[in-house]
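In the design runs reported in the main text, the only information available to the sequence generator was the tokenized backbone. The following block is the verbatim input for one such run; it is reproduced so that readers can re-run the procedure and compare outputs position by position.
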């Protein structure tokens, strides 16, 4: 069993009570900065992350979100300067094409492409049948898919939004001006954000000795017991034990989120990590809890 001691750079969040108390965050109160509507998106966790970082005595040099997805947490950290720099890591090449474009001089092209696209079932289907030839075309297609597919799911086998959603059918999640504004907002912060297409675990391993880096870890939920992540993400094979082992070796602080499954609790307990249950509402507005996991606490 691992019983790592807490490095001085790993304070924590987890000493004592859960900072913001057991209340459900109203996601409408969090600025939505991502162009994605991401399944499993962590908008609801933003206030906790903010609180965690603001309580640090020294601002982290780098905030590394190793499973970026829609990246709402990293974007908020960059926008509110809660760390000197933000690094987002994502393995899915479709999602990666969007991040690459957002942080490049093609961002304005993407914003314009979205605003000018005449959305309809026919136009979406026509475009989705074509293989994109450039990174920016792939980015546009990914945003389109994310907006018109049921639940925002990009994994293969997902159909278009049902015609009745919000009574607006295919365009019920297509907000061109809002998307363009978010894209321009991200481009404006590009100096503070680095995107890496690759394996988040590998990036964490490379940074393991650093005390000035912190990690936000939101993997696909595919640990034994609950396996929602398999359906939601094209890339969902994670070595969960390996991820927990890696987390126990890094010198920087981390916040990990997982679904509330017995297998997850066991992995955390075996490594003497701190565990907190946080309430949230899922997309069907059912109340449920997720787990927040952090480094071992000091024995007070
Ligand atoms: C739960 S989602 C992250 C959601 C994100 N926190 C948000 O708020 O939008 C997990 C993401 O990890 C990505 N992923 C899966 N395996 C990965 C790996 N080895 N390295 C980096 N990203 C990975 C998936 O493609 C998916 O986008």
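Verbatim output:
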């Amino acid at each position: 069993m691992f019983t790592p001691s807490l490095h001085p750079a790993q304070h924590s969040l987890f000493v004592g009570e859960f900072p913001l108390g057991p209340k459900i965050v109203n996601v409408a109160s969090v600025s939505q900065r991502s162009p994605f509507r991401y399944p499993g998106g962590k908008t609801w966790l933003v206030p906790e992350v903010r609180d965690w970082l603001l309580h640090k005595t020294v601002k982290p040099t780098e905030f590394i979100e190793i499973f970026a997805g829609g990246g709402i947490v990293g974007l908020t950290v960059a926008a509110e300067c809660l760390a000197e720099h933000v690094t987002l890591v994502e393995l899915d090449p479709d999602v990666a094409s969007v991040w690459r474009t957002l942080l490049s001089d093609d961002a304005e092209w993407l914003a314009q492409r979205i605003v000018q696209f005449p959305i309809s079932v026919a136009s979406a289907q026509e475009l989705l049948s074509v293989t994109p030839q450039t990174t920016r075309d792939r980015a546009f297609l990914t945003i389109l898919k994310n907006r018109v597919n049921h639940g925002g799911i990009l994994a293969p086998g997902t159909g278009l939004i049902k015609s009745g959603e919000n009574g607006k059918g295919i365009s019920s999640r297509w907000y061109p001006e809002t998307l363009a504004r978010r894209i321009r907002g991200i481009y404006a912060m590009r100096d503070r954000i680095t995107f890496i297409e690759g394996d988040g675990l590998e990036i964490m391993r490379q940074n393991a000795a650093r005390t000035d880096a912190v990690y936000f870890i939101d993997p696909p939920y595919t640990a034994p017991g609950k396996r929602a992540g398999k359906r939601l993400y094209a890339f969902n094979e994670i070595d969960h034990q390996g991820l927990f082992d890696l987390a126990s070796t890094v010198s920087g602080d981390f916040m990990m989120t997982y679904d509330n499954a017995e297998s997850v609790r066991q992995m955390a307990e075996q490594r003497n990590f701190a565990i907190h249950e946080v309430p949230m509402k899922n997309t069907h507005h059912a109340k449920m809890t997720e787990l927040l996991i952090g480094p071992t606490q000091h024995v007070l």
